[in-house]
Structure formats: C-alpha cells, structure tokens
Automatic annotation (TrEMBL):
It comes from Filifactor alocis (strain ATCC 35896 / CCUG 47790 / D40 B5). Keywords: Membrane, Transmembrane, Transmembrane helix. InterPro entries: DUF3137 (IPR021484). The lineage of its organism: Bacteria, Bacillati, Bacillota, Clostridia, Peptostreptococcales. It holds the Pfam family DUF3137. The chain crosses the membrane at residues 42-61. It comes from the Bacteria. This is DUF3137 domain-containing protein.
Length: 313
C-alpha cells in the first residue's frame, strides 16, 4: 500500500467537507447544533442552581428525613429535571458529523460512544486503569482503518486519603489490519530524556521478561524511543531506515507509540487534545469545523499509510 493510493489523505476530501459545510442548508443545521449546545449548557446551569436552592430550602424548613429523600431523588435521577445530558452530543453526531462524513466517504461508519478494541488501545498507550475511547470512525477500506479518540486516567490517593484523577493519555489512536511479516509483536515507546542520560517511558509498560530490547542504526531514533519485541530478526527486518526516519520526524511534533503484530499496526498520538470533540466553550463552539478536524486526522493517517508503504514484508 502506498500513501498516494489512500483516498483518505487526499486534499480534495477537506475541500469537499468545507464546501458541504458552506452550503446554506448545512450552515443552518450547524448553527442549530451550536445553538443547541449553547442552550443546553445554559439550561443545565440554571437548573442546577434551582436544584441547589430547593435543597437549601428543604434543609432549612423541612424535616431531615424529607431533605434526604429530596437529595436522593435529585442525585439519582437528574435527567428528570435536566433532560438528556447527551442531547447535544447526539445532535452534533447525528445531524452534522455522521451525515457529512458519509456523504464524502460513503463506506465510513461513525459511533460516538465506541472505540478500538481495548487490548490494542492498551498495547500502544501508557498503562492505565480507565481507558475511555470515543468518536470511533471505521473507514471500511481494504486495510480496515479504524480511528478513535482516547482519554485514559487513573485515580491516585494522597497521604490524606484524598482521591485525585491523573491523566495517562489524551489523544488519537489509529489501527489497520495489514500483513507485516513479523513474528510475535513489537512495541515502540516514545521516551523522555532526563538527568544523567536516563530515559522515562512516559507511563508505558516496562520491558517484560519475555521481550527483547533492541537498538537500531538510527541514533536519534534510539535517543527518543525504546523498542521491545518478541523476535529480533523479523523486527529488524521490519524496522527499515524509512520507518525509523518517519517516526523520528514526529519526535518534535507529538509522542507516537507503536504496536505491531503479524497482521495489525496500531499508532497512538499523544496530542493532549481530541478531534471531533463536543465543544465545551463558546469559542470552541464558534470554531466547530469537521473539515479542520479531518485535516488534522489526515496528518496522522499519512504517517500510518507511509509506514505501511515502506514495510519490508
């Protein structure tokens, strides 16, 4: 497979998305979605304030048992008062993202609350307790290209017993099914240089007893990556200078993790942001653009397809 053969990285796709977004009927629909998101945020704020006032008055003027019942009802069934908290999400996905992507890429399917299989997510990202994938795009092509956002976290308890949520990973995952000629699997971990020449694995799983650590002929690649594999010979055959150079070029952009087995390639991009995310601020709502997000996705897709196109299989 060659990068030039991938229709998903063609610049005409972004151009077509912009044309669709600028059509009068779509401008109207997009504005409707934006208004819905803004309205929902205002509605939730007002209702929560009212609920807080009700709880305060109940605490002051009613018996404690009645107050506890009211609190329980409000906490357990807030949707009775707020409506569905996912309405804006569904509006964005159903009325904007999904139909637009399907018009440009007819074989594409999009599911917001879905993602790439968990074992593959874990294989290419830092160790985590709670991986939460979302906005899953299946491109329906010959290599089964899959994309999703991923937010991974774990809880940490301090000396005082307070719980704190720590972010392990925020970014994008790409996966394809493609014969690689590899025996077993390999993991490429983006590292961080610290004092005295030591390297940090950025939360990724350390080398396992059954894995072999190898170094390549590319010095800069070695300075910024660790490679753990099951079979050294097939790994060295696969990781040719072209692939090493491609990954090294991304060192100054974002950390890229890699997992490859005999038929699967997974890339993780620790961008610390999400594509096609439901906007949360007024500025994000005004900048809502499927074309802009897809243009960023194309850069990540380009790396994946270039890697596939230079494999020694």
């Amino acid at each position: 497979m060659n990068l030039k053969e991938s229709k998903f990285t063609d610049g005409s796709i972004v151009q077509r998305l912009r044309e669709i977004e600028s059509l009068p009927e779509n401008v109207k629909n997009i504005e409707k979605v934006k208004s819905s998101i803004l309205g929902s945020g205002f509605q939730y704020s007002v209702v929560w304030i009212v609920m807080a006032i009700v709880c305060f008055l109940a605490y002051v003027f009613l018996q404690k048992s009645i107050f506890l019942v009211i609190m329980l009802v409000l906490l357990v069934t807030p949707e009775l008062f707020l409506g569905s908290t996912d309405s804006s999400t569904f509006s964005y996905v159903r009325d904007f993202a999904v139909p637009t992507l399907r018009e440009v890429l007819p074989d594409t399917t999009v599911k917001y609350y879905s993602g790439i299989e968990t074992p593959y997510l874990r294989a290419a990202t830092p160790v985590t307790h709670m991986p939460v994938p979302f906005f899953h795009i299946s491109f329906g092509d010959e290599v089964n290209t899959d994309f999703c956002n991923l937010r991974s976290t774990h809880e940490k308890i301090d000396m005082q017993g307070n719980r704190e949520t720590k972010i392990d990973f925020e970014g994008q995952i790409l996966m394809v099914k493609h014969p690689t000629g590899l025996n077993g699997y390999l993991r490429i971990i983006p590292t961080k240089q610290v004092m005295f020449g030591m390297e940090l694995l950025n939360g990724h799983k350390e080398k396992q007893p059954y894995e072999t650590k190898i170094e390549t002929e590319d010095i800069r690649f070695n300075e910024n990556h660790e490679v753990y594999c099951m079979d050294e010979l097939s790994t060295r055959t696969l990781l040719n200078p072209h692939i090493l150079n491609l990954l090294t070029r991304w060192v100054d952009i974002v950390p890229v993790g890699v997992y490859i087995d005999d038929e699967t390639v997974v890339l993780s991009f620790h961008t610390k942001k999400f594509l096609f995310q439901i906007p949360e601020s007024a500025l994000e709502i005004e900048e809502l653009s499927l074309a802009d997000d897809y243009e960023e996705l194309q850069e990540e897709l380009s790396l994946m397809y270039e890697i596939l196109g230079t494999m020694n299989t």
